[in-house]
Amino acid sequence: MNLFGTTDIAIDIGPETSHVLVKGRGIVFSGRTDELRASSGAGTLPELISACLGRAGIRRGVFRPKIRAVLTADHGIGEGEKRRFQDAATIAGVKGPLLIELPMAAAIGAGVPVSEPRGSMIVEMRGGGCQIAVIALAGIVAARDVCGCATASSAKGAEPKVERVEQVPKEMVAGAMKDVLAECAAKGLRNIVSDILDHGAVLTGGDGVDVGLAKWLAEKVGFPVHVADNPATAAVEGAGVVLNNLDVLSPSP
Length: 253
Description:
Blueprint: E1 6-13, E2 17-22, E3 26-32, H1 33-40, H2 45-55, E4 66-73, H3 79-92, E5 98-101, H4 102-109, E6 120-126, E7 129-136, E8 139-147, E9 149-152, E10 161-164, H5 170-186, H6 190-199, E11 201-205, H7 211-221, E12 225-227, H8 234-243, H9 246-249
Parallel strand pairs: 1-4, 4-5, 6-11, 11-12
Antiparallel strand pairs: 1-2, 2-3, 6-7, 7-8, 9-10
């Protein structure tokens, strides 16, 4: 039992923008990730998560509440990266952190019927990259990641330096959307392909997402593309929906 209560938080840390939502209060921070780095010092992942907790009004100390959190993570990351993310959240003070893949979080937050058999396509754009996923029955059945990044040469033995461009080329996004649909067709998921051709894709994220881009993509891919009502905050709002099920999803203490 925690005498100081429990605070449930959804955290979406992006390369350029980040968002923090507190259950019962709504979104308490929505701004540039650089602001979090400036307030957290060096900007390591545990420090960034601590900065998110600070934006929620939670400070380190004896009297802090028990903290539970759902954090967004890129689709397709390996188990090692997932553990690194969860360990960072634990170091920051989160109890039993849960991860949700970014396209799924964005789809939930955008109101896409992810638990239905009907196939839905989500296109999440942010920070010079794009994650595209087809979702049905609460699972991702096909996905593509697009990066509009350039990898610069580095000193021998050092990690390559990734330089983000301002926005992923929209031609690459359109091509990846077609590829995801083709993958569904190759898997024999004809009903899902038909669903997407009928209902289209939902565009989320904050990197140049607008009606003009949606219209351009629709013309290139041959099926409707809609902008979510809340494109920039869809992912953190989707993670916030998951907060309502933490008592069922969280591991036992």
